[in-house]
Design brief:
- There is one protein chain.
- This protein is mainly alpha-helical.
- It contains three helices and two strands; from the N terminus they run ααββα.
- The chain has a two-stranded antiparallel ribbon.
- Helix 1 crosses helix 2.
- The longest helix is centred in the N-terminal third of the chain and has 14 residues.
- It is elongated and about 55 Å long.
């Protein structure tokens, strides 16, 4: 997750803030959801399915204690 500063028109800010309040979500989460929808990336936001287990134990080559390797698996490398 990245932090950034965005300058918004006052009218847009008020509309997003009101939407966030109606949905019971944070302003930041509401902006993120709106951007995700506008960019058509709803499907990309879903958590990846990791092929970590095979049968009763981890698949060969999967080391659950190796965070970097797990991230590589999630990215499809």
């Amino acid at each position: 997750m990245h932090r950034t500063t965005v300058n918004l028109d006052e009218g847009i800010y008020r509309r997003v803030r009101a939407l966030a309040q109606r949905k019971g979500r944070s302003f930041a989460r509401t902006v993120e959801d709106l951007l995700r929808t506008a960019l058509g990336t709803d499907a990309e936001h879903r958590a990846p399915e990791l092929p970590l287990h095979q049968g009763i134990g981890p698949r060969p080559g999967v080391d659950l204690s190796d965070r970097d390797r797990l991230y590589d698996l999630m990215d499809g490398h």
